[in-house]
Each structure stands twice: as structure tokens, then as C-alpha cells.
Amino acid sequence: MARLFLMSCNLTREPYPVYPLGMSMVAGAARRHGHDVREWDLLAQGRDLEAAAAEIEVYRPDVIGLSLRNVDNIDSVSSISYTDHYCQIVRFLKERFKVPVVIGGAAASLFPEELLAATGADYAVQGEGERTFCRLVEEIEQGSLPDLRVWHGLELLEEDSFQSKGRDADTARYYMREGGMLNIQTKRGCPHRCAYCTYYLLEGCRYRFRSPKEVVEEIVRLRDQYSMDYLAITDSTFNDAEGHYLEVAEEMLRRQVQVNWMAFLRPQRFTEEEATLLKRAGLASIEWGSDCATDVTLAGMQKGFGWSEVEWSNQIFARLEIPNAHFIIFGGPNETEETVKEGLANLERLERCVVFAFRGVRILPGTAVHRRALKEEIIQPGQDLLQPVFYYSPGVDPDFIHRTILESFNGREDRIYPPAQDVDRIQAFHRMGYRGPVWDLLLSKKGRRPAFKG
Hints:
The protein is an alpha/beta fold and 454 residues long. It is 38% helix and 16% strand. It has two domains: 3-152, Rossmann fold, CATH 3.40.50.280; 179-442, TIM Barrel. It has helices spanning 21-32, 49-59, 83-96, 106-110, 112-119, 129-141, 169-177, 199-203, 212-226, 244-255, 272-280, 295-300, 307-318, 337-348, 368-375, 398-409, 423-431, and strands at 3-8, 36-41, 63-67, 101-104, 123-126, 150-152, 182-184, 187-188, 208-209, 230-233, 260-265, 283-291, 324-330, 353-359, 361-362, 390-391, 415-416. It has a seven-stranded parallel β-sheet with strand order 7-10-11-12-13-14-17. A six-stranded parallel β-sheet has the order 2-1-3-4-5-6, with helices on both faces. A two-stranded antiparallel ribbon has the order 8-9. Strand 5, helix 6 (129-141) and strand 6 (150-152) form a beta-alpha-beta unit. The protein is globular.
């Protein structure tokens, strides 16, 4: 049995505080393998590395595992890379402790070799960590450090084998108190290969569904144990062609869960019955995977749907008084000055929604945008992408995008650009005790959720 100290290194609270679910899932898997695990969230523990070191001194782990959530903030207007932050943490730990340091999480999965070289960590886990991290720990337990430095999670976990039956109690209370939500996965994987997205690279290109009964049982445990009344479903896309998401909603109703929740939805031709079912089950806000605002740019981003589906989806839930949020990227493949103007006009027709606008597409390895950027010689083969690099369509000037969005959004509280613009206001709501995504409060002062008293 090994003693494992797992640390979530994320410090960002934008767009809202997010419980480190991936780390909890790896911790749960390690415990099922017989290991002793201590979880530590750097954000929840006051960003204090000295406090973490004191805990490690007492705990005396055999391995330290670091969860690296994001590479950067994907905001071209005020770009922030987190690489230096990760380097500082690894350097601090390796100076203090003579045990292997393993990095994992989405950032390490996208840039394993680069982050190993930058941080000086001993090993990186790429992909799903539950099985792969435990295999690495078992090798380390044998007494000689493995030569292989990047451990690939090539074999995806089976349905219903990825779960987190518990949460670290102190960490969970922090996120509830600070305005965040607890979170859950109902499935993994994504069959949609959007041009900019890495989900199918990280989780596979097919859905792996958990049992709706097991999903709802976990929600009930979270509700009862932590007084949770707002939940984030973190699936890449909650709705699926197979209808699994409707089965989850039906099970919520059957169990009378009575918890508000939000999810990421893919625009489609929802029926009134489907939309009403989701609302009755507790759907309280939606973040749409729309990404673009015209047929031309949606096609360029390989979304697989058109603007009519985006508008239909927004309006059907708007009629049910469910707030919508759209995250729109301007400047991607096929963008021109005409599509920028058309897209902003299309967004004007959407009701009961907040729009977050971005300029430029973050180029990530293995994506269609990466291949397109190489073909158009925007980047060069072998170019380091660990530091943020953004794709812009040759058909439009980035400054034109910037000016045009600002002009269109001027005076609108429900239109956010640049993305960092609204951070202070969102954090103010959280300090007042509100939780959930908070952007929905920008739409109306009516029906505000009560502040968390726990």
C-alpha cells in the first residue's frame, strides 16, 4: 500500500469556482486499489504552498500527484498562461521532498512532454488517470523508478467504472460556501469532432454512459451530505442521440431529487416535451456548445449543426424561462468581416441569454484547427504551443473583430467581452453567498436564488 498526496493546482475562479472532480475520481480509484490518499486543493486551502508542505511533512507520502486543470485562460485579449505557476509548484515540492512527483489532468494530457520538460516533474499521466496512475504507483512501489516518463491511458474505462462516490469534505464545503457548485459526470467521451476541441482526444470519440440510477444516487448523496442545492453536470455534452440524458432526468424526477442543475447542451431540435422534462427535473441554466453565430462559421468549426438549430434550442428553453449562455468564438475558420456582422445580428434575436464572446481560437495539438493552422502557415511544424497561440481566419483582421464586438455589446449587461470583463461582478455575487453559474443573474433581478447558509 502506498501513501499518496494528491493536489489540485488550479487557482482560477473563472467563470465560477469548480470542484476538482477529476482528482477525486483518481483518489477514489487509488483507494479502491488499497492505497492511502490525502487530497489537497490549493485554491480551497488559501493558495498556501507552505501549508501544503506542512501537511506533506506530517503525512509522509510515497508519491505526490498534481492535477493540472488548464494550460491557460484561452482569452486572446488578456492571455494568461499557467505554466509558470505549475513550474513554481513542482520546483517547490522537489526542493522539499525526495519523492516522485507525477503530473496529470487535462493540461498534462495535452502537453505531457512539454510540461515535464518545463516543470521538472518526474512523470506525466496522459488521459484517464484512474487506472494509469495506479499502474504507475504500483511500479514505483517495486522500489526502482520506471524509465518510462509519460504514462498513457490508452485503454478507456468501461461504462459505470468512472465515478466518485465521495468528495473531500473540507473541499466540498469550500466550494459550496464560495458560490460554486458540486459536480458530476453522467458519461465520458464525445463523438463530435469540433475543429478546436480536445474532448474526443482526452476521453475518446464515443460516449460511455453511467447507469442513470447510479448517477442519481450520487446526486442524492451529495445533496444529503453537503446540503447541495446546485449541481453542474460536467459532460462534454449532456444531451445525446441515444437519449441517455432523458433517462437521467426521468430518474431525477422518480427520486424527487429537487436540486437545481446546469449542463452543457448541444443545439438540436428539442421537442416541447423534452425541454419540459428537463425543466421539471431541475434544469435551471444552460451553457450551449454553439461556439459560432453563422452557418458559414459553424461549418468552418465542424459543429455539425446550423444557426437555425442554435436559435431553435435557445428559444424553446427561453419560453420555459430557463436562462441560456452562449460562448461565441469570432475569428475562427471561414470568418470574414461579413460573418462577424451577421453573427452579431443573429445573436440579437436570441432571448433570455447571456453571450460571452472570444476573439481567436486557441490552437491545441491534434485538433482540426491545428492542422488548418499548419496548412495556412500560421504556425510551423514542431512549433511550441504550450504558450498560448491563437488562430485567426485570413479573411478578417483581429482588430476589426475587437472593435465590432465592443460596439455591438456596448451598454449590454448580458453581453460579455472581453471574457475577463465580468470577473469582478461574478466574484461579488459569490461573496454575497450566491452560488451556481451566476451569469444567469445578469438577465433579471427577479427570482434570485437564496444565498448559501451552510
